[in-house]
Amino acid sequence: MICRVRTLLLAATLLLTQVQIADAHIVSARLGDFYAGALHPLLTLQDVVVWAALGLLAGTMGAASGRWLVVVFPLGLCAGLALAVSAGVAPMPPIMDAATILILGLLLAASLRIPLALLCAMAFALGVMRGAANAGELLPQTDRLLYAAGLACAGYVVITLVMALALTFRRPDTEPASNWRGIAVRAVGGWVAAVGLMMAGLSLAS
């Protein structure tokens, strides 16, 4: 029994000494830049709150109006990223991010019917702001096209999923905003506004 254990330990030691650094195909293909663009905004509080609130707002507007944001918002992300890279546009200060979240929360809490043109303009402007903010993670060796593609895909997926969930839950085409589902969505808007207010206070305090 002891000899068998010694043999296993010796074999394991020999195997460990032969281990080399892994060279995965995803690194050599530079697809890591795509995943960096897709994952970075999902790990940032400002992006998560703004994207989720915008998707929820699109869902409360109904499918006919909300589906435009699925296209407009990713285009805004790419435009903001391109502006930040080419023209050196600096990202918005933290107080502007907080004000954006506060406004989105208040719009959700008030359950206002926003015209489609204004809704698309808001989505594009928010996309430009958040795209410029995500440009801060670009490195000289980063493939900007892959990074932009990952960022746009993440924006598309988040807005689509949140809008679909909101449409399924809220049912804006068949139920009035005064029912319990509409009240729940407005309560979430109040929480979003509270997050924006807290972020504004922290940014002013610092």
UniProtKB/TrEMBL annotation:
Origin: domain of life: Bacteria
Sorted keywords for this record are: Membrane, Transmembrane, Transmembrane helix
Keyword Transmembrane helix applies: yes
Record bears the keyword Membrane: yes
| Pfam families documented for this protein | HupE_UreJ (PF04955)
Q: Which organism is it from?
A: Bradyrhizobium ontarionense
Under the heading InterPro entries, the entry gives: HupE_UreJ
Protein name, entry field: HupE/UreJ family protein
Q: Which residues cross the membrane?
A: 34-56, 68-89, 101-124, 145-167, 187-205
